[in-house]
Design a protein that fits this description.
Helix content: 40-55%
Number of helices: 17
CATH class of the largest domain: Alpha Beta
Number of strands: 12
Distance between the termini: 55 Å
Structural class: alpha/beta
Order of helices and strands: HHHHHEHEEHEHEHEHEHEHEHHHEHHEE
CATH topology of the largest domain: Rossmann fold
Radius of gyration: 24 Å
Number of domains: 3
Strand order of the largest sheet: 1-2-6-5-4-3-7-8-9
Strand content: 5-15%
Length: 373
């Protein structure tokens, strides 16, 4: 396969976890053949600007036979090594200034079909954020779009799951090796992603989830997509890093508006203030002329609340009381609701949980709940 003669030198260079495709461009500009990279050894690497520490690591990797073991392990696991000069390497990723030297790809697809959108957000999201992320994933699948995210808890996991539930194709870009399940509770989700999509990473097999690797991988999420949607993001968020990479590459950035008193939405709201497009209507975003049957008309949750109110037979007495209180009083804590409804905190919590699952109410931060309206 064209580009495969680069696997060995690029594996060696990539394992330093510092360099990107720009360094390899300098090597090519010198008119050298791929084999010369390894044959040239430390003296050549020094002229390329590779520091002493990394030159030492590369010598150790060569002496230990790590390259051959890594290639053999990839073959056993069905992992493809796609170099930045391989025709199967995503062309949109090459447009990024710091494209990865190679990708480890594990799953049914080496590339994603159709329009590809990135959907990202905080791990500590609200139930409303989960609802919106899942709906974006489902709508994307309905439209034949592919979805890319980071495989993390919260918004990432919700959009992956929504896309899969609707029979769509999604990919997760990991901050670990593609053979590492992180977080552990996403084992079944990662398995489902691989059945029709793929797991991507630039990190070696077995690489763990060190904190600095996740912000770095976010450039790949942005690079694989034509546009990025931020659902919920606080002040310090990897989602904002992804949005910055997308904007710097001239890609569209969208953000879902959130409550201005909710820290989880501070970063995503500021994106809109800074010029990102607000995602306020699914039909507009996906270019639909008519909403699909059964799909939400908007992202406010108001239709769901009206649906519950209009079908009293499907709502418990406790749920009806809480809906009435939230409608009249605004956001409340569980203690507020228990006192005003003359119910125990346990009864309130049970009813709140069921209403949250149905999208009727959402957590408005600091232990408070509001009716979706």
């Amino acid at each position: 396969m064209p580009g495969d003669n680069l696997v060995r030198p690029l594996l060696l260079l990539n394992n330093c976890q510092y360099y990107d495709a720009r360094l390899w461009e300098r090597f090519e500009d010198a008119g050298l053949e791929p084999d010369a990279f390894i044959e040239g050894g430390p003296s050549l690497w020094e002229t390329m600007g590779i520091n002493e520490r990394n030159r030492g690591q590369m010598c150790d990797d060569l002496a230990s036979g790590w390259i051959d073991r890594e290639i053999e392990a990839c073959e056993r696991l069905g992992v493809k090594l796609v170099t930045c000069r391989n025709p199967l390497y995503p062309p949109s990723l090459l447009e990024m200034k710091d494209a990865p030297l190679l990708l480890y790809v594990r799953g049914a697809r080496l590339s994603l079909p159709g329009n590809v959108i990135a959907v990202v957000g905080t791990r500590r999201c609200s139930s409303y954020g989960i609802k919106i992320a899942r709906e974006i994933g489902k709508r994307a699948a309905d439209c034949g779009w592919s979805v890319v995210s980071g495989g993390a808890k919260g918004i990432d996991g919700a959009v992956h799951a929504g896309c899969i539930d609707e029979g769509g194709i999604t990919a997760a870009v990991l901050g670990t090796g593609v053979d590492v399940v992180f977080p552990r509770e996403h084992r079944s989700l990662f398995g489902a992603i691989m059945e029709t999509g793929a797991l991507y990473s630039e990190y070696r097999l077995g690489c763990g989830g060190n904190g600095w690797r996740f912000p770095r991988r976010n450039r790949i999420i942005a690079g694989l997509s034509s546009g990025t949607v931020v659902v919920e993001a606080p002040r310090r968020s990897g989602a904002l890093i992804t949005a910055r990479h997308a904007a710097e590459a001239g890609r569209d950035v969208w953000a879902v508006p959130g409550r201005i008193d909710d820290e989880r939405c501070w970063g995503s709201n500021c994106l809109i203030f800074d010029g990102a497009m607000p995602l306020v209507d699914f039909g507009i975003f996906f270019g639909e002329t008519e909403p699909k049957k059964g799909a939400a008309q908007d992202i406010s949750g108001a239709d769901d609340a009206r649906e519950v109110k209009n079908h009293a037979g499907n709502v418990t007495e406790a749920e009806k009381i809480l809906i009435a209180l939230l409608t009249n009083q605004g956001d409340r804590t569980i203690d507020n609701l228990a006192d005003e409804a003359k119910m125990s905190a346990a009864e309130v919590f049970k009813a709140i949980s069921m209403l949250s699952l149905r999208g009727v109410i959402f957590s408005s931060g600091s232990g408070r709940y509001s009716l979706a309206d």
